[in-house]
Amino acid sequence: DLAAGSIEGYSSALPWTIGPVKNKSAVALASAFTGDAAEVTPLAWSVLATRPEMCKSRKSLCEKMVKVYVEAARILRDEPLRATLVLKKRFAQVPDDVLTASVDAIRRSTPIYPAPGAPSLANSTAFYVKAGMMKPEDALKNYEGLFTAEFVR
């Protein structure tokens, strides 16, 4: 671990990055939550995806799934204590102050309606290409038709 000196650094998501920074066993070099990645904002960091024909044949299911996403985003934004208490059940080993800081950071980047669009999908792809996780030639040139906000209400 970082404090023991057995690793030099890592890239991770919340809440795992906040604890080491808070206890000063690590420093954050860059974080999208603090505006360090403005060139890839907005980013499609949580996407619900399915085959196009699924929502044509099972429209009610897609509406219900998206309704859960919208409600979760609303709770995260409007009821941070409730969101923290729910997450505490899943992340019981994470200290309360770290979990609270994680929820606060995520709240700031949670859109009112969590529907991806062409800009967020293109930015996500650009991030993967820059990070070496995707070959530039595998990136799509156009993202139209890959997303819908039809079920977001």
Reconstruct the topology from this structure:
Elements: H1 18-22, H2 52-57, H3 59-78, H4 80-90, H5 96-108, H6 118-130
Helix pairs in contact: 3-4, 4-5
Approximately what portion of the residues adopt beta-strand conformation? under 5%
Give helix and strand order, one letter per element, not per position.
Answer: HHHHHH
Helices, by number, come to 6
Helix/strand/pairing class, anyone? mainly alpha
Largest sheet: none
Considering the chains and any ligands shown, give keywords for the structure.
0% strand, 153 residues
Provide structural commentary:
With 153 residues, the chain is mainly alpha-helical. Helix content is 44%, strand content 0%. It is built from six helices and no strands. It starts with 17 loop residues before the first helix and ends in a 23-residue tail after the last helix. The relative contact order is 0.15.
What's the quick description here?
With 153 residues, this protein is mostly helical.
